[in-house]
Amino acid sequence: MNNTLLITAAVLLVLAFLIGVKKQTWILSGFNQRRVHDQDRLAKLVGSYTFIIGLAMLVGAFIDHPNTQILFPVMVIGYVILLGYVNTKMVK
What we know:
Elements: H1 3-21, H2 39-62, H3 71-89
Helix pairs in contact: 1-2, 2-3
Protein name: Exonuclease
GO molecular function: exonuclease activity
Organism: Fictibacillus arsenicus
């Protein structure tokens, strides 16, 4: 069991709950949340992505495979793509 992935998964799942369910978009840094016209869509989009990545890391924590560390760069690349999408398509 990989403790780093397990801790990261727990943090991501808590963040997914806070962002996606509780709509606390103030947590998001770099997303220009004050300029986004649809806060609910922003919370749903980022919360869903965070939940999916959290689940992937949770599954990866219990799989004993040396390539599970690839999830960190995938997470970062996904957030950069999501950041670009939000800042170009959802900002007033």
